[in-house]
Structures
1.
Amino acid sequence: MPQQPDRPARLRIAITGVTGFVGSHAVRRLADRGHEIKVLVRDRSRLSKKFPGSATVVEGALDDRQALKKLANKSDVLVHIAGAIKAVDAAGFTKVNADGTRAIVEAAGQAGVKRFVHVSSLAAREPALSAYCASKAAAETVVADSAAGMDWVCIRPPAVYGPGDRATLPLVQQLSRRHALLTGLHGQRISLLHVDDLARGLVSASEGLVEPGKIYEADDGRDNGYTWQELAKLAGHTLGFTPRVHLLPGKVVGMAGLVGEMLARATGKAQVLTAGKARELYHPDWVIRGLRLDETGQWKPRIGFDEGFAGTLRWYRAHGWLRDS
């Protein structure tokens, strides 16, 4: 397999999910590589000020067949990043993550797209844990079954963090304090991945430098992941002190998750914390175990948690998301 070129051939790349955390980083990297970019957005006003001005914008959602057809038309590669991380119920996750993936795969196939890159999640490895996990596993099955006519790749990242991420802000906030109050288990191990490294991995997959027809897992290169205490120690290199970790009891978080589900059903508004999310938070092993993306030889992680935490904390403080304590 050839090495990644300094000046890649210009590709026509269609992307979903560019207003999200991962997508906003990936689209800028792909544009910087000189590719012709087309994106699907529900509302163009949500595009970042740093969004590539040369990109073509298609307004629509994953349930808009005409918009998907327009997005896929004359594209060489389709990178599917869009997905739901919260929903009112299981049907909501299925509609976006599984049915939405089926719709975009079908549009890509009908348009003659040659390469399909799907951003999944390590959660897909544990479909019995929650409706979210099940929907991500179902989406992978859709890609494997329906994208057979294309060079498809699925990439399963673990928890992704970095500048600009709202989802991992609470984690960084707690790890920046002398007493960190966290969810999880003693001895629980997790893999992590900095968003810049994931974006580079998506560039490699988009440019055809990853063997197709496989599901890859990617992390920051830390064998066997981290415990919460190890993360606190690494955070301490930046802080000048090591936070003391306090873990919330799983039963308490599980009860709060049940309340979240009842609230979602009563209001019709999705909640982040549900019973399923609580089960995810207290699953003992979120370390990547499958085929590693760095085994392809085309991509290697560059940012460990020590460096990644420091840069993310600086960004949060500079943008007023966290106070400088």
2.
Amino acid sequence: MATTRHKVVLARHGETSWSRDWKHTSFSDIPLTPHGREQAACLAPGLEKFDFALVLTSPLVRARETCRIAGLGGRAELEPDLVEWNYGAYEGRTTAEIRESVPGWTVFSHPCPQGETAREVAARVDRVIARARAADGDVVLFAHGHVLRVLTARWLDLDPREGRHFVLSTGTISVLGWERDTPALELWNATG
């Protein structure tokens, strides 16, 4: 692992109608709600405290729109590895609906038919982490709840399924950093 000690800021997109209704949203390109746009604007003051060497965003509209409203759209590079976990057949369904046929289901513990596994998501975010650690300074990632939770687990050298321990709300900022030589969590799930 690189020995750089810059920070990686995670910015979860603002609210969409599906996130508000607890529907699993991977590749459905759902825009922000008016409240989601307000959340994105509230991220700007916290992000202004950083001088980002690299701004990456998921190519999905909810992440790109959050990045733009937060003031970093002009600097953003699309990063396909930041797309949300592919929920496959569970796209657009709530956990409660899925549990009617698969008791106890969670995305971290059970498969998503025609979707991704935790290990497959981890392979994607490991590439993002390598890119972030190779940057010349602080990095910000605009993305989605589950993929950022897996990314956090991997940053901390944990199994990707341990992302289940990190609740991540829409329109929030989190900061990954270092405690001396150890990858660490500096700030989690902070609102504007």
3.
Amino acid sequence: MAVLITGTAGFIGFHLAKNLLENGQDVIGLDNINDYYSVKLKEDRTQILSQYAKFKFYKTDLCDLPGLVTIFKENDIQKVVNLAAQAGVRYSLTNPFAYQKSNLEGFINIIETSKNFKVENFLYASSSSVYGNNTKLPFSTTDHVDHPISLYAATKKANELIAHTYSHLFGLPTSGFRFFTVYGPYGRPDMALFIFTRKILAGEIIDVYNFGDMKRDFTYVDDICAGLMSSLDKPFAYEIFNLGNHRTENLMDFIGIIEKTLQLKAKVNLLPIQPGDVPETFADIDHTTLKLGYLPTTRIETGIKNFIDWYKEYYKNDLP
């Protein structure tokens, strides 16, 4: 019996698949390896996973419904973790149809196929972005999330509503996970830690929005994977979970840790907040801890060091 993970060439999907494979689990990977960011990075992640005997990979798109059905027919898939999506708040401002295809059409295809093949558990990625400009902190899954401020967030809220409908109508167990600013080795090049590290090493100026008055609940990727793995064997009729670190870090302090780790000073360009951004995120994880035993353990200093060590090794031929 296999776990199907969509988005295995992506950041979280790669780490989750690797963790499951190291535990002896059969994993079916699916990814279209698009060019939203470095194709080489995605291919390198896939190459690492392909070294495991229990990994089987399909290069395909969630919008290819016949192809998706074929994957289910060819494999005994009992559990699905849908992490494939068009990511990024800022990208959604100028490329809305990428989100329509991947996050809406693609999501309906994978949940409909999962229902038809009677999978035991359906997990999927939501986002902390659904909280929008909520001012009550920390963000709780009981909060109203009816006012997203980006199309990306709106599609993630739509995923939660679609999952609820499938759970209600068809009895499909679904669990959605609102990720809070995930970081770590093999991370996404469009995320702050990656951008700041690259530019500081190159002696370039980094753009810091809202004049540095930003706070984020940074969550290390291994903690995210622990939360997902603990949910795989716990099907719920319908649940939403926060996966965060349950603490919020000031952005300027975050940059300070990067500077200290690199032993370099950042050149900072302070700018107004960008459309779609929120000034602070902070996860209430009490519900997740109660239901899943989720307890993040990675300190921000440790996580940043792990990322920078990986970055220097992976890009060693490109460093100044």
4.
Amino acid sequence: MDFNLSREHEMLRDMVKEFANNELAPRALELDNKGEFFWEQVKRSGQLGLIGVINSKEYGGTAMGHLARMILIEEISRVYPPMGFFHQTGNLLMYAIETFGNDQQKKKYLPALCKGDKVSAFALTEASGGSDPANMQTEATLKGNDYVINGRKCWITAVDPADVVGFVAKTGDKFSAFIVEKGTPGFEVTRREETIGLRSLPVNEFALTNCRLPKGNLIGEEGRGLVCALTTIATIGRTGAAGVALGIARGCYEIALKFAKERVLYGKPIAALQAIQFMLADMNVEIEAAKWLCYSTAWQLDQGKTSRDLAVDIARCKLYAVDVANRCAYKAVDIMGAYGLSPEYRVIGLLRDALELGVAAGSQEVMKITIGATITR
């Protein structure tokens, strides 16, 4: 791998850092405590061109690519991970439509989603488990010009505020991907899950009860739904989760380092204590390693590699970055002592957010299965 960040990437980082520091950080604790979806911040993100960073300019995006997306998710998640995770989950359907959808779907949905005027969600997981999508029970039956759909999806992030939702259902002995809009008869968002982290991003179940969708709501070809979903989740979901984790790790490290330099015990800052230095050194090294795993994977996607080509690379960056985020959060709490447990200092909130990432876009064990099956082939 041989790459350098372009001037555009550096300018993007500076702009996102300013947005995060000035508009997200001061309200992070308030937004967490409210636990409500952050429409104002989404709209602002759309105005800055951040939501459509991987989408074509033709449809309202900026077409900066996957490395740019990794950078912006990292910088946002450093101070407010729920907003960073919005750029993970919010990009799923946008990628699926642009990659697998038709021109009519792209023109209808993508411009408003890129602007932040509307938001989207993508649903694969059912009670039978998200790691075994072939066992899903939601069914779509073609009757005339409409598909009639019955089933339930669970643990779906941002489906409650979403204006448009992508999902996968069985069509005969195969699977197909569909689009459903809020307000469609037979589509109902139901129970909200109680989660410990990412509290401003609601996670809900939704039901489809004799829900009729026209053929035009089919994404791509009938029977190709799992290809659409798994490609999208790997390319967008797993790399996005890795970016959030990288940002959390950096946020914890920066808070702990600042605290250690300012906290005086025994007549000197605790940063002078070797035990503290060792913890900070561990954090520093692991963050740099996670960064290169994440950046190199995103860069390769920009060079035209597919999620199939990069299956192991994507699994590695998600697995390692999430583990590093959790380790850095725990170390930050140790360094800060009782202050680390105070929501005001943000570290305990970052730890809660990091814990959520272990199951996002595929569990850590699924990442190991992907890596293990490949290296022992």
